[in-house]
């Protein structure tokens, strides 16, 4: 596999979360709106494109879980993130040195009830094409999503 | 009570909570405190306006569920309106669009 | 020196510029508004705090120059960024493998005239406490700024 | 002509350019093209409204300078108004707050 376009290493703490989320949001833009100017035209990252919304939402849940569960909110370890973008897909890997766990034992929430927790993994899995986890150290999360064939993209208007 | 992320307005008829920006693992706890304060007052009618909410995560959803369940358990009414874009997609995914009557 | 809080490696091209700018903007927030919630409350990064505005503006000029001048807009090399944050300062290093140049030969623009170029380095130097450059390979830029003693910060309003 | 970043409106009296969001190395070239088109029409009065401009860099400044110098060289008037926050700080740093009468 070719080297990732973007690598980010940072503390595995919620305080730094926005750093990672913003990087992933920008990487999504490169996939979903490659014809846009190389830059956002506004300082807001916008998740109005469903591809960006899906990937960023899923990524944020997995990041939160690492900070909260793998590192127990202690922020005493790092997260290494690698991002590959192609014309029509994104792949994001996260590596941490926190406690491993058994992903297969996490139940799918019963959606006929309202839950106050246990929705993060379900959200991530539902929004992405693939969510893989290999317990470590380091623990490895591999997230993938393809851009669906564009449904008549709104014209750029320029 | 209010913060950068929400504003609570109480009138004779109802309590209105406007949520804006990002409601996530970092910002949800402040709203959760406000929900506790509110529930102590046993309001009859709560309206949650999500028109200005840009992004939510599962922690944000959890606070809204807590509010919804809590107020209803006290016999109050809750209406959650205005979700769009990413938040709406998350509510749909969690099949909450029915419960919340979005 | 302690290891940087955040490391980012990415293509040295304007297409990826927003990735780097957003990371630096978030890192600034950690210095200028450490008491704020760990996350921005809105998806816009805001540069209303003068510290953030200064650091991000300066960083963006230096990044643009690497992509445009050192890499000649070819995007054929990477940029490695390291960020250190303390309670009251930020330090950002950028390393690239593009053409080196002689920074001391860049003239200070005469500000009694209006210029259509040659303002980037001057902007960066004026906004930061330190701008150092060591020609390479790799070429190294070291940017530093201290937060000034807070002039009666507007109350948080919570 | 317009883009995500600017809107040009022409009336009998003047041409008004509203710039918004980020005017930087990636977005400035589109505005530069619009400036070329505009100059070909030799407008008598151009008003540039920067109220909605959040962030500018030296490439963005360069386009505004080009506009200012170009229109004035044609004998036209240019007024640039409304800069705030980061853009205002950059104009001040470059001592353009006087020239632009901000
Ligand atoms: N990265 C992780 N490291 C360790 N345990 C995890 C991790 N991610 C999830 N878990 C476990 O899986 C459970 C379900 O996670 P999730 O669906 O995100 O819901 P929640 O975080 O709200 O509990 C968590 O409660 C935790 O026990
Ligand atoms: N990273 C760099 N690598 C090579 N040359 C550079 C670099 N940064 C600046 N320069 C040189 O210094 C000059 C002045 O840079 P700057 O003040 O940013 O203005 P501008 O980029 O508009 O010319 C550039 O024109 C270029 O010749």
- Name the average pLDDT of chain B: 93
**What is the level 1 CATH name of chain A?**
Alpha Beta
Report the CATH C-level class of chain B.
Answer: Alpha Beta
From the spread of the alpha carbons, the general shape of chain B counts as: globular
Please, what is the average pLDDT of chain A?
A: 90
Rg from Cα of chain B? 12 Å
- Rg of chain A, Å, rounded: 16 Å
| Overall outline of chain A | globular
Distance between the termini of chain B: 25 Å
Helix content of chain A: 25-40%
Query: In whole angstroms, how far apart are the ends of chain A?
Result: 37 Å
The profile of the biggest β sheet of chain B is: 5 strands, mixed
- CATH architectural name of chain B: 2-Layer Sandwich
Number of domains of chain A: 1
Query: What's the helical proportion of residues of chain B?
Result: 40-55%
Q: Give the CATH topology of chain B.
A: Transcription Regulator spoIIAA
Strand content of chain A: 15-25%
Number of strands of chain A: 5
């Amino acid at each position: 596999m070719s080297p990732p376009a973007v690598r980010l290493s940072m503390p595995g703490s919620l305080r730094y979360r926005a750093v990672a989320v913003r990087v992933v949001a920008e990487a999504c833009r490169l996939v979903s709106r490659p014809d846009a100017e190389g830059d956002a035209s506004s300082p807001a990252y916008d998740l109005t494109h469903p591809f960006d919304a899906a990937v960023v939402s899923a990524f944020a849940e997995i990041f939160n879980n690492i900070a909260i569960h793998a590192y127990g909110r202690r922020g005493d370890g790092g997260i290494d993130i690698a991002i590959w973008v192609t014309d029509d897909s994104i792949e994001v890997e996260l590596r941490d040195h926190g406690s491993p766990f058994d992903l297969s034992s996490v139940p799918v929430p019963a959606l006929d009830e309202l839950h106050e927790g246990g929705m993060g993994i379900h959200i991530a899995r539902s929004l992405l094409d693939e969510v893989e986890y290999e317990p470590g150290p380091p623990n490895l999360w591999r997230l993938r999503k393809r851009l669906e064939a564009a449904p008549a993209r709104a014209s750029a208007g320029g | 009570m209010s913060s950068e992320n929400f504003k609570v307005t109480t009138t004779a008829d109802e309590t209105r909570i406007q949520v804006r920006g990002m409601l996530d693992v970092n910002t949800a706890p402040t709203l959760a405190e406000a929900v506790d304060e509110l529930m102590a007052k046993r309001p009859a009618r709560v309206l949650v306006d999500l028109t200005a909410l840009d992004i939510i995560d599962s922690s944000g959803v959890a606070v809204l569920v807590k509010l919804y369940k809590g107020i209803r358990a006290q016999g109050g009414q809750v209406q959650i309106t205005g979700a769009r874009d990413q938040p709406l997609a998350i509510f749909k995914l969690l099949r909450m669009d029915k419960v919340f009557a979005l």
